[in-house]
């Protein structure tokens, strides 16, 4: 035991102390991989942008399984990274446990609130962004039936679905909104085959615009929609470029901004614990318009959606948030 | 009869196997343009070079000891229990139920109860394939592997629909109450340098105790004698009055119970709540551990330590050298399993020949 | 060259000199670790003869033949086939050199037909049909020539062992073997089947084939061989013309001393009935009735010998009495009925009731080959109080007991840590016997006590059984060796087709009468 003790004592300090001096920010990419063209990729892009602009470096690691969360988080904190950004609601309970062990490390969690003195929680008003793309969907639809495909069946995704349905009904109160979820476990974030299957099922029910809020699963949704010749709506990142002419728009959720700002604040020593809400007003969410979807968006659509946006920011339109009461007035 | 000294069989051959595996791994790393020496260094330092590394290495090893012993016990009765994964998952359910249903005042009370809960649930999950094997002749390899899938589906259902905390989005149980949390290495081993992060917990000592218990069971007790005799020859066991159904059932219950105990470490000790896929493939690693450890508890312990180090070293490698992807690390681990398990005879033949020649030279 | 048939010469040994022996081995040596299995063996096997090789178990006969057939490589020495030096690295080379082997345990595919088995491994091309047609033609020819009648389309699993052996011979002949090696070929045959085999062998010899017959049965050597070589402890002690020798001389050459072929024993003094069996019936899992109503009794202080050709229900009888398989009927031991099915119809309950069992097949049932001698000594008795301390086994007691047993039964080497598989057949049997006899059972079941056991050990085992009888115990002896039945039994029951054909007293019958009863004919009717 004495041999072990000295071994431990000596090396532990060397190994951990070396990394602490640099204090780079750290990013833990969630399940699905950093090139999921959606949520994770958005965060990755934010980190890359910070990298280019600041010229500094950051640490990054990728989760492979649910049970790895704790080790990755601890490893990141142990390595001296500060702040550590974790992505997704699934990290909440782990962070709740880990954060108190590293009082000197700042954590940022996206999509969930963790009430700890060294944690900043970034939440988005996805229902508002979804409302806008719902408006566009209703205007683009010929059949009067549009649809939604969620990833994992959790309140957060219902928040997307509910905002979307409200937007659709605001334009066309008689419209039919089909809502499907891919699954009940985290694997639902990365199942493009099932996504495509669900899309085809919705098309057979008459849907001609499908909105995917499903991480990597959405790739399959967009692909199936393009294959079948209907319109789709991307999520999180700007996914318009994936199938030009078929992706109506994307509900961008500026996870990249959240990551960028967290890194920036960390570097400047201005880390703010507490809840940070990102909505239409501070460009946290929005709809994407670029050369890929320009032909699909008419002037009247653009005008309507911009007007709606203004009215939401002004408080003239209140979009119901599903997570507040677990119910949705639109379906 | 034996052409090799025992030490060569136990130590030399696995060592040569391991070296070969690492050499091939180095080649693979070199092929993707990374420095193999650096990668190996990161792996070794990451696994055993710091208290942080040891904390994880021993934590993983604890998991593998339980599942490895489970497979080893069944091996002695010539039963191939591939169901460690499912049995450990169910063990997690048992541990979670025990920890959440009673407001435990202290971990010393919660631990025995959780041990019992995990073992009971794991054993129960093994009991059904065992019964089918013993009475209907359904092959246990097929049934246990199917039960892995059933276990996984069952746990998803329970976590999503029954055990999930109302209002939470993640499919996991509530965190276990304070009194049910096991002391981690930081609590009892801080003087050795373990930090707060160490997932290593008292379940490690439960695993060591299980090694001793399995050794006594297999080599010292009547039951173990019957299990080994049954494994060697079912016909002879019948001649000796060893009842096949009883032996299969008891062996598989012990095996399933040991697999279920893994949850004491992973669920109660580390995560402190039940999450989806809490087993993380340890049930399958247990097969490799038992094979490499020649189904002997000491061998299982050593093999589990090796695999624990490989896991932790791999995680570290992934963290330190992002160019070496997760898949690459799985390749390295697989190479070790391949060389130590499947290709054992490739090394054994030449080494035996070497000893034979040496002995002939001596006489 | 036209399509080859079995009568054509082999390319490998083209134009062999007529004077050269078919096989000549010069100075063959082979060691396994410290054991010298073959020591400087030289032998000439003349063309067109039947050459017997006789020796005790472990004398090195099988090793020598395995070298000849390419399973082992000799450490030194050379092999000459037809006068030419030949390397035989594997069995393919042996076949090319014209050597065919008929193993003790047949290597046939059970669910293939005879024809398919004959062709297997010697197909002429990718397609099976031409080979099958050719083989069928050949089989018909051979059947005519050598009385090798076998239905080409029968499945192996439906054939008796005698027939299966013929298929093995046909396989060798199909591969154009000139030299045929048979390893203990009569072990599984009825006397008439054995006679038939010998007729076939003589026919083959007269056609110019060379036959090597490995056996430990002196009578077969005397009956059928032209020359005989004797092996002892890895060495070739003599090669003689069979006509110039006698069984007792051969036996002496084999063991190196005179052997008592008869056991000295006093007449039995039978006591009360120990075992009583009435209307015992067994149906196997294929629905075949293996025991069709057995009635017998064994008294204290006597040996009841059950004679019969293997496979006529003796094994089933022993297994039922030993608690291994279930049956219907009535069995009482000292007046107490035994369970014939259910949880108490097992080996453990039988032992508690006072029955000890030396099974016919010690490798399959009697021993765990990978267990040490001491572990095997506890086998079946591992739950007795003297071997246990609570749930633990009292290993010290068990080992001490084993050492004593090994000494009393002259088990060599007397090392209780050796694995059972490391002992020779005779010593393995002694371990089983010591275990079962020293429990002092009321009834001892013994199956084939001296199968695969060398002559020295046979004597020892026989004496032990007589001693047990004289101690007033009942013994039920099952053996396919008539010599053994005669030597030991106080009464003889003959089994045929699941029934007892009749009982005889050894002094009032002879081998011919028993042989006829074993073949299903009533001995009295001759």
From TrEMBL, chain A:
SUPFAM superfamilies in the cross-refs: Periplasmic binding protein-like I
An example Gene Ontology CC term for this record: plasma membrane
Keyword Lipoprotein: yes
Entry keyword set: Cell membrane, Lipoprotein, Membrane, Signal
Subcellular locations according to the entry: Cell membrane
Domain of life: Bacteria
The ABC transporter substrate-binding protein PnrA-like domain, residue ranges: 32-319
InterPro entries named among the record's database cross-references: BMP_lipoprotein, Peripla_BP_I, PnrA-like
Signal peptide positions (record): 1-20
Topological type in the membrane: Lipid-anchor
Residues spanning the membrane: none
Family: Belongs to the BMP lipoprotein family.
Identification of the protein by name: BMP family ABC transporter substrate-binding protein
Automatic annotation (TrEMBL), chain B:
Subcellular location: Cell membrane
Protein name: Sugar ABC transporter permease
Transmembrane segments: 12-33, 53-75, 110-128, 140-160, 198-218, 248-268, 274-291, 298-315, 327-347
CDD domains named in the record: TM_PBP1_transp_TpRbsC_like (cd06580)
Listed GO MF terms: transmembrane transporter activity
UniProt keyword annotations, A-Z: Cell membrane, Membrane, Transmembrane, Transmembrane helix
Topology relative to the membrane: Multi-pass membrane protein
Species whose genome carries this gene: Meridianimarinicoccus roseus
Automatic annotation (TrEMBL), chain C:
Keyword Secreted: no
Family matches, as CDD domains: ABC_Carb_Monos_I (cd03216), ABC_Carb_Monos_II (cd03215)
Domain of life: Bacteria
Keyword tags: ATP-binding, Cell membrane, Membrane, Nucleotide-binding, Repeat, Sugar transport, Translocase, Transport
SMART domains noted in UniProt: AAA
UniProt GO molecular function: ATP binding; ATP hydrolysis activity
Cellular component, GO annotation: plasma membrane
Cellular compartments annotated: Cell membrane
Entry keyword Lipoprotein: no
Domain ABC transporter stretches: 23-258, 275-522
The protein, known as: Heme ABC transporter ATP-binding protein
Annotated source species: Meridianimarinicoccus roseus
